Fold:
Amino acid sequence: MTEAAPSSPSRRRAWTCRRAQLDLFYLGTAEDTPEGGPGELWISGPNVASGYVCVADSDAVKAKSFPLPGWYNTGDVCTIDENAFLAVVSRTKELIKYERFQASPVELDAYLNRNPLVWRVGSERVALECNYEDFED
Structure:
């Protein structure tokens, strides 16, 4: 069989998906953000899992990640422009990751601030060329 239908240009970008619902909420709340404003990205749809399987303390994990029934918090901070295109601008949880190590900048700052010789601390990711063995105790 030969397709004879006229071609119709798609306005959809190649990397988008259908049937998923997206919404942006103020950080830490279930209130919609104003148009164009940044907010936490929540997704819903038939392709979104309703919870986690085989996770210790599954109910607590599910309640934290799925507080809105049927919606999942991605942890991404996004904006949606006037053409309804989504842009990821940040993450709600920043982690400094290196090899098998993960550190929260907030926890790292708190640890360093315990030293009486430290006046002010600010942690940030910086690319270094070293091995994780350099950090072994």
Observations:
- The chain has two helices and six strands.
- Confidence is low (pLDDT under 50) at residues 5-15.
- Strands lie at 21-25, 39-44, 72-80, 86-91, 96-98, 101-103.
- The CA atoms of residues 98 and 130 lie 10 Å apart.
